[in-house]
Amino acid sequence: MVCGARRPAALRLCFLFVYPSAAPNVIDMKDFTRLERRVAVLAPLLVAAIGHFPAVAQVKTNVPDVVAGARPAIVERITIRGTALEGNLEGNAVDRDAVVFLPPSYNQNRTRRYPVVYALHGYSIGAEQWTKEIHVPQTIEGAFAKGANEMIVVMPDSKTVHNGSMYSSSVTTGDFENYVARDVVSYIDAHYRTIASRESRGLVGHSMGGYGASRIGMKHADVFGSLYIMSPCCLSPRGSGGGRGNNAANEAALAAVKTAADSAKLPFGLRAQLASAAAWSPNPKNPPLYLDLPIGDNEPAVLAKWTANAPLAFIDQYVAELRRYRAIAIDVGDQDGLRVDAGKLHDVLDRYEIANTFEVYAGTHTSDVAVRFQEHVMPFFSRTLSFAPVKR
Fold it and tell me: For 218-247, how does the pLDDT look when each residue is reduced to its tens digit (9 = 90+)?
């Protein structure tokens, strides 16, 4: 269930404090009574559909029925070197895991080339866990069996010391934006039989991955040809709440973090705060975490940096790039608080007369991601990507 009007206090905190990828029930806000309003509001908007949350939860999602006659995809687990991540101050891995799903016909015709869909996971999980939440390869195989054209699907991993990169460019976390748009794409084109053109590349992401698809999509229209944005988080600039001194205990807890192990002990929202700061307000002169938090005298400057990373704040600078896309789709559950900002993104695209589709479906933030992947995401790319080989 969504944090709704029946629980106004929970509504505010759910929207601005908690990240996704958790069971789809309302979080028990009594667990957070010691968290002050100011820190809660400063945390990025990611989800309104959250349940009781262990530190790294495996979300149970609705699974579509196995499609009769579906042929097995080929699954490869690989490592991709991240040149864009080299020298990151957090010590995040430069050699990153990725999961590649090759279509059933891949080994049958050694000359055939395929479009590629790059699928980005959400906060607090990695690519491997997301495969279980969207039930791949079953949903990929089901989509093919139901008529979607065969393509390659790639799921790169973007988990960091503080549980998520925000798919942003930061000296602290590393440049995950260009890791996805450049390093991963280049590797896949070099090692698999792809159709190596932007018209044959799709980008999709859910939650933090939806933010990543929005951000990377706007800035790298030269790389991708179609976008599918699922329940995107963090689209709007975040504001501060409360006066100075309202969250001394939380400020002290954040200040005490010196290592990755310390970060792992934090309550979920505070750890998400660190992830946001590492991505959007890095500071190479502020060890050991190399980030600035929106606390004290730093607050206005840091919040300005966070605003600069909000897609609804910078979308007007990327209208020409967005016009290049063959198709853009946005979806979100009707019980997901993120539907408000998702709708705003759709409205901006409409205002600029950029073709897009927007669907609010019956579900929470996570309940139907597997069904959506099979029944909507894969068919969307089947319709909108180019399957014509590049003339050499």
Answer: 999 999 999 999 999 999 987 543 334 447
Triad 385, 206, 178: Cα angle to 5° = 70
d(CA 265, CA 199): 44
- In this prediction, residue 35 carries a pLDDT of 32
User: How many C-beta atoms surround the C-beta of residue 112 within 10 A?
Assistant: 13
User: The tokens 């607090």 sit on which residue?
Assistant: 124
Q: Which 3 state secondary structure label does DSSP give 226?
A: strand
Could you state, in order of their start, the residue ranges of all structural domains in the chain? 8-59+236-308, 74-233+313-384
CA distance 278 to 274: 6
**Cα-Cα-Cα-Cα dihedral sign, residues 260, 263, 264, 269:** negative
pLDDT band at 296 (very low <50, low <70, confident <90, very high): confident
For residue range 137-196, what is the model confidence (pLDDT) as tens digits? Answer: 999 999 999 999 999 999 999 999 999 999 999 999 999 999 999 999 999 999 999 999
Nearest in space to 173 (alpha carbons), one of 359, 321, 309, 72: 309
Three-class HEC string of 152-207:
EEEEECCCCCCCCCCCCEECCCEEHHHHHHHHHHHHHHHHCCECCCHHHEEEEEEC
Tokens of 121: 């996971």
Structure tokens at 164: 């998520």
Q: CA 352 to CA 339: how far, in whole Å? A: 20
pLDDT tens, position by position, 353-370: 999 999 999 999 999 999
Q: How far, rounded to the nearest angstrom, does the alpha carbon of residue 129 sit from its chain's CA centroid?
A: 13
Joined together, the tokens standing for residue 98 give 């990725």
Burial class (CB in 10 A: 0-12, 13-18, 19+), 38: buried
In DSSP terms, which residues pair with 357 in a beta bridge? Answer: 329
Rg (CA), the chain: 20
CATH number for region 74-233+313-384 = 3.40.50.1820
- The Cβ of residue 33 has, within 10 Å, a number of other Cβ atoms equal to 7
